[in-house]
Amino acid sequence: MARRIDTYLQHLIPEEKFAFYETVRDFGDREIAPHLLQWERDHQLVPDSCIRAMAELGLFGLPIADQYGGQGGDHTDLVLMGLALGYHSQAVAITPGAAISLGAKPLQLCGTEAQKRAHLPALARGERMFVFGLSEPGRGSDAANPEVTAVRRGNGWVIQGEKCWSTNARWASHVVVHALTAPGAPNGKRSTCFIVPMDQRGVFYQEMKGKKVWEQSSTGSIMFDGVEVADDAILGTENDGFKVMVTTLNGGRLFIASLALASLAFALDKTRVYAEERIQFDDKPIGRFQRVQDVIVDMDIALERGLTWLLHLCRLYEDNQLSREQAAKVKVDCSRAASELILLAMEVCGGVACFDEFGLIRHHNDLFVTRVGEGSNFALKDLIVRPLRGK
Hints:
With about 400 residues, this protein is α+β, with helices and mostly antiparallel strands.
């Protein structure tokens, strides 16, 4: 089945980037789509063999400079990967996506040269994976004020507390811990980020059970019980962890928007084909009805609008001109539009849309994550409205 999204991408990106998108798209068709239903029914995380195949394709080193063994790509490439892999499964796409945008990216942007040399080559090869320890049981949207603490002891630090909703925790070699280090300091200057090995004494990981979204993605709880680290574990500078967090999430929100659009692209193709194949009422396809056409057209408009906007913001990100408000806006709009329209798509398709084999229910469930991941839409609207209020 020809993908409507390809029609738009061909005119929005250079030829060499479209060729890269096609390579990842074809990989997804070949290595993911035929096995996805079985992975779901077996309640299986992304298999190690699939992760190795993505590593061999170079996806984990996508935006890492070639001097560190990466592909030397940019943020547009990362978003194109999200669009290509997320078409079948957001859960599979987020595996290299989070490894890059939440793992390797903060190291690239804020790490010392010694830290980059020590980790980036292995990250680029997929031999290591960083997980970003941000969310906590008692801290969701208020991530700027973590409950996990790091207390100075001699020439080092002692980390205590728990992180949760940590994507890729199952495969992580290291965790970037966002911890409170200066409780009395001004807001935005209270925390520090630390690079901590997952096999460090006092670090305990447990897969979170009962999750019904992104079911093939690892989501872990990570405990820190008196974990000792030295100053060279600091990512960025002391008490500047909020800056590391904001820098990381800005690009991550663009990737989340790409996952929402990937699900929308799948739903559009599935619905428009079904509407022409489903024969009802005088032996004619339901695609002739205006109400069905309205849903399909609205999905198509939202897809083209979102792609055009998102790829424009990728260029701003690469030029260091992307504001927090712009990244938040596109994430809110794409996630909201896709999750609202897929409900209408499921109504068009009727009962068959409830079955896992049809695919729409998977994307319906996973789209919820795009509304709350990388900052909930409600919290992000508070950020977006500030310049409108002159603040």
